[in-house]
Recover the amino acids of this structure.
């Protein structure tokens, strides 16, 4: 009888998980388990089997849950979405249970480094172009740095030194603009309003940066053992439906390879670049996770990056990973049926 396909378990994760599960399940090469803390997670129905994860749970208890589930279901590979440093540090325990670990980086410290943008910028400064940046902790220091950078570059912006999804990012302006505010603008903040918010408060570490007015690039990359296998460089064109195109940029590809090597990337990750006023791309951040734009990269390149990630870890021949750039795509809303799953305890499971 032919051997059963390897079992791959996708734990709780963000939006591109549906895309990755579909690629794995449709290939016929893997049996897919998916889990989440909510039975309403849209991607559960795309897997062959679904599980509900316990919540809330402390890291040691979560690791125990993972190891127990791996043994119970004969999981051959774990594609983790949460507690990544914890699981990266438990690689040997998972290997003893017969399970490969698929996470963006083999190095547990890389996740913290990507979160701490001030330390991250300092580490890669001089090797990859970065925005001119100041780390501040008070309103007085923030205002002084912002006005200095605005005088040099025309405008300046702020964001928390730690954070995701661009939360807290604002471009500083001299005056409040009522029309902009009523129009839902969440990108601009006047110095006067910033002073009322920040002055006299204990601030978290804040970065004050030159504003980058040029084209934005998002690089979806696949690495194995610190080696960049392939990447899709998406240029954001704006317009209707988040219009994007794939471009060929040797500098961006070289910088992404450097990041993969230095951060010991071992799966899917994302790097964000934006051009300054002179057209030089500067690195904004690295996300040690698959990006929400992963389906766009697949559409632009024809590369099933989620499936390739699995194949790389199982030693499959990946074939030709090159593609011709130039295609343009936009996004459209997809409506996903949520399965009418029964009410279960955190240890329950079901067939998708």
């Amino acid at each position: 009888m032919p051997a059963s396909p390897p079992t791959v378990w996708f734990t709780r994760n963000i939006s591109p998980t549906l895309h990755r599960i579909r690629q794995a399940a449709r290939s016929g090469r893997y049996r897919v388990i998916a889990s989440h803390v909510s039975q309403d997670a849209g991607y559960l129905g795309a897997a062959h089997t679904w599980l509900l994860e316990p919540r809330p749970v402390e890291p040691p208890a979560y690791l125990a849950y993972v190891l127990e589930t791996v043994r119970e279901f004969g999981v051959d590979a774990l594609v983790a979405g949460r507690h990544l440093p914890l699981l990266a540090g438990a690689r040997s325990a998972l290997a003893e249970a017969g399970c490969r670990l698929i996470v963006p980086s083999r190095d547990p410290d890389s996740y913290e480094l990507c979160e701490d943008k001030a330390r991250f910028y300092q580490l890669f400064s001089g090797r990859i172009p970065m925005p001119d940046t100041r780390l501040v902790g008070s309103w007085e220091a923030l205002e002084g740095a912002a006005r200095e950078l605005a005088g040099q570059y025309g405008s300046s912006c702020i964001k928390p030194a730690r954070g995701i999804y661009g939360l807290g990012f604002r471009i500083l302006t001299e005056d409040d603009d009522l029309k902009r505010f009523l129009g839902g603008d969440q990108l601009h903040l006047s110095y006067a309003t910033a002073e009322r918010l920040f002055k006299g408060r204990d601030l978290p570490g804040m970065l004050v940066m030159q504003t980058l007015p040029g084209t934005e690039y998002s690089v979806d990359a696949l690495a194995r053992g610190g080696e960049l296998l392939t990447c899709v460089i998406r240029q954001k064109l704006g317009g209707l439906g988040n219009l994007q195109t794939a471009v060929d940029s040797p500098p961006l590809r070289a910088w992404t390879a450097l990041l993969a090597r230095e951060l010991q990337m071992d799966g899917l990750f994302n790097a964000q670049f934006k051009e300054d006023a002179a057209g030089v791309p500067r690195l904004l951040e690295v996300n040690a996770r698959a990006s929400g734009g992963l389906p766009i990269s697949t559409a632009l390149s024809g590369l099933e990056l989620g499936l390739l990630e699995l194949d790389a870890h199982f030693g499959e021949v990946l074939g030709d990973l090159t593609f011709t750039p130039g295609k343009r795509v936009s996004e459209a809303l997809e409506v996903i049926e949520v399965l009418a799953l029964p009410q279960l305890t955190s240890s329950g499971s079901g067939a998708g």
